[in-house]
Amino acid sequence: MDKGRSFIVILAAIAGVTVTLRLGWWQLSRAEEKIQYQSQLEAQLQLSPLDTASLLNSPEQWTLAHRRVELMGKWLPEKTVYLDNRSHKGRPGFWVMTPLAWSQGQVVWVQRGWVARDPIDATKAAPVHTPTQPVRLEGRISPGLSQMTELKASVVAPFQAGQLPIRSNLDMQSMQAMVSEKVSAVVVQTGTDSDGLSRDWPVISKTADKNKAYAFQWFALSGLIAFLYIWFQWIGPLRHAKQKS
Prior knowledge:
The chain has 2 domains: about 5-40 and about 205-235; about 65-150 and about 165-190. The protein is about 40% helix and about 20% strand.
């Protein structure tokens, strides 16, 4: 093999080994991030619930994602929104979102549960009951609502009277715009099913197994590139030379 071609081969081998090694280490770092996140999540869930007094004294605690809360408040049922395309055990349906006035001038938007979509009319859902009297809410602080892909950005039209208030997504800006009170956070309601809603939410977890498997694959590919270079550039030619001598 001429020197120019040999130089190109060694550069390609070095580049291949370098890139695959970096990708392997990156996957290991992602795995470590998920392990730390899972540890923090489990630690938050083990702590005692935050109550109204605690949150009023230290409102920065609303940033503690997954921390359990216990609140007394009153629903604002006229502000309820149905988030579309939220399936549950393979069935189409909605997440029901209702703000809860938990303190004077303050609300939390509550992901109350899942309700099935009407099998005939997609703009309707099974009945949902919203108590008018004060309620005791058990839940956990949400890190944020998942966002569904929308085909195009558009101006959200106001809800029409008599129609189910359906939206694809809700963000903090739109939630704040829909109420006059200050929005403290989004809370996922936990506990037993009630009000016509299902609350058997998926278990929150972030496993690092997939990232570790990807890291192994990248390291294996790196080793294969190095082995093939050594074999074809060194071992193979030496064996060929010995056979000719």
